[in-house]
Design a protein that fits this description.
The chain is mainly α and about 325 residues long. About 35% of the residues lie in helices and about 5% in strands. The strands form 5 sheets. Strands 1-6-5 form a 3-stranded antiparallel sheet. The protein has a two-stranded parallel ribbon with strand order 2-11. It comes from Amylocarpus encephaloides.
């Protein structure tokens, strides 16, 4: 396989790009919004809304890269997510950075004609039988599990359905054009106790309620959410053959954004538990063990402007203006 760095723009160009991103000033926090829109769970959307969303996802793969790559806007999201890995995972800004990332993706969908809102998959509600949820519809959803007829053939777990023609370019650290890959973790009924499909018991509503109630500070809350349900859902979808939700290029799978919008919803619910204290509660270390603050600059490496953490702590801003 060809390494990404060998096929794409020169390393010196990427270094200059990153240096520019680091130096770019963060913009001021926008004004508070007055009429936040309601983000919808996928199954609560109309057929027309779901169809429009899926068509816009396919449209992203017809748009040129915004960041100077020889690939598409669709690929920009997985590429940036992989490149910024150490800055956005296991660090304080994990939640606000992904909140901003979802916003950038939603804007890109709207540039492709989508007029709805960012939607989420309520995996807590579906945790008893997640593989049967309507989000995986082969006619009006994200295509279900990957092909199971060739279990021992690498990169062959291709999805079916409306998004089956997507061909992501990047897979982890390599350039490898492929179909969207999934390998749902199967149930193990003979285990003691029996194990549910897609590891559903680890992101049930009971688990979420426990995280919400037992973590009064952002520091413990974000760690419990990122290392628990967030990571488990990724693993349950990617499976043993490392489907696209496994590597750091996980935005290859469009379900990534419905998953992370659900993660954002859980954070929003936690904030609503005590808005006065929690809306701007932010702490923990960033990359390099530097303490994070509301003035910490979140990088987007030219996919969108760099912004401060503090700009994305509330969903009721001029940029975001939404609720759940």
């Amino acid at each position: 396989m060809v390494a990404i760095k060998d096929l794409l723009v020169p390393l010196s160009t990427l270094s200059a790009l990153l240096s520019t991103s680091l130096a770019a000033p963060a913009t001021e926090a926008p004004a508070t919004c007055t009429n936040p829109v309601l983000r919808k769970e996928w199954s609560a959307a109309t057929a027309a809304e779901r169809s429009s969303y899926l068509k816009a996802v396919l449209c992203l793969a017809t748009k040129p890269s915004r960041i100077g790559l020889p690939t598409t806007l669709y690929d920009d999201f997985s590429y940036i997510h992989n490149q910024l890995n150490l800055h956005i995972h296991g660090v304080a800004q994990f939640l606000p950075w992904h909140r901003y990332f979802i916003h950038v993706y939603e804007a890109a969908l709207k540039d492709c004609g989508y007029t709805g809102v960012a939607m989420y998959w309520d995996w807590a509600k579906a945790s008893a039988a997640p593989a049967s949820d309507p989000v995986w519809s082969l006619t009006a959803g994200f295509g279900g599990n990957g092909n199971t007829s060739t279990p021992n053939v690498p990169m062959s777990r291709c999805i079916d359905g409306p998004l089956k023609t997507l061909r992501p370019t990047y897979y982890g650290e390599t350039v490898r054009s492929h179909c969207v890959l999934r390998d749902f973790v199967a149930a193990i009924p003979q285990a003691d106790p029996p194990l549910q499909e897609m590891i559903g018991w680890q992101y049930s509503q009971e688990v979420i309620d426990g995280i919400l109630s037992s973590n009064p500070t952002f520091f413990t809350f974000h760690s419990a959410l990122e290392g628990g349900p967030h990571g488990v859902v990724h693993a349950g979808i990617a499976g043993w053959s490392n489907g696209d939700m496994g590597p750091l290029t996980s935005p290859n799978d469009p379900i990534f954004f419905l998953h992370h919008t659900m993660v954002d919803r859980v954070w929003w619910q936690w904030q609503q538990g005590n808005p006065g204290a929690r809306t701007n509660d932010f702490s923990g270390n960033e990359f390099g063990d530097v303490p994070g603050t509301l003035d910490t600059v979140m990088l987007m490496n030219s996919l969108a402007p760099n912004r401060k953490v503090g700009d994305f702590m509330s969903t009721k801003t001029g940029d975001l203006c939404y609720r759940y």
